[in-house]
């Protein structure tokens, strides 16, 4: 009995002993450990990354250029086009197709739109038929004249031989001369019909609207199916133009200067223009002419200013501010060269003068050649180009290639 009990105990499953691990479980365990180690390394690298240094910057301004010349007068005005046209058809008609869109460039003679040419086409066909009929009549009269001339010649020989009467010969000559006159009239009719056909061709061509000069389309005024006319004959239901084109090469600036200050402005005077849309962009310009009349109501005189720089950003009707600059005198002292930067942007590093120039989100350390002290600024003869931004009061921790962000 005891032996049987002992045997049963040996057959009992011991649940306290853990089962042996599966063959693939150790591999997954090592993969999880490796992923955790990589994540920990990435977090540590992100936390230990170099922080961007907050800095203040200022632009380097060129010396000895138009931007640093003294302004004798400031005024405001607008960009205008000297060559602008609202293109219309020569005749009244219904629009069949419009081939332009705003912003599209067109060349001189390019087709902008076509009108429905039904009436003009039918009239042209009629005149073409008349030309063919007149030419056929000329051919028939020429054949008859040839026969009449031969008959008159034959009868003339017979009259000399007294084989026919003189009256028959005279009748043949009269018939020949009549046909000759009819042929001359028919030839003139051919010419008249040809002229009418040419006029009809012009009528057909008038249904095609072409660009009078090269330019850019600034407005599209008509759509297919609308009636257009060179005259406003239908009130608000009739268009007077297909579109407006502007010659961008003719852009200039018009400003109004008060009568009290117009004496400061002279032709060929240098001007610095600034568009309201791009306040940091200085555009070189020059006075073209002072319009010799004044506005009584506003007490102003209009001044035309030429733009020396052609750029697609300059478009008509843009607001602009202009500064009339002093004209350079031959005996004037030479202006300083280089650029002007804040004096606190120049620091000493490794025994030389350097500045830190902003390049995207980092800085470049550059050696410079300092010049004259200009109040709170400093002249730099070399090392920095106009328009670049330099760090003012750079901290001692700032180095070449340091990550920075501009202080707002």
TrEMBL record:
Region (Disordered): 384-408
Stretches assigned to the Multidrug resistance protein MdtA-like barrel-sandwich hybrid domain: 83-229
Domain CusB-like beta-barrel: 253-326
InterPro entries the UniProt entry points to: Beta-barrel_RND_2 (IPR058792), MdtA-like_BSH (IPR058625), MdtA-like_C (IPR058627), RND_pump_MFP (IPR006143)
Keywords for the protein's UniProt record, in alphabetical order: Coiled coil, Membrane, Transmembrane, Transmembrane helix, Transport
Biased amino acid composition, Basic and acidic residues: 397-408
MF term (GO), any: efflux transmembrane transporter activity
Keyword Membrane: yes
Locations listed in the record: Cell envelope
GO cellular component: efflux pump complex
Coiled coil ranges: 131-196
Principal location class: other
Transmembrane segments: 28-48
Domain Multidrug resistance protein MdtA-like C-terminal permuted SH3: 339-393
Family to which this protein belongs: Belongs to the membrane fusion protein (MFP) (TC 8.A.1) family.
Protein name: Acriflavin resistance protein
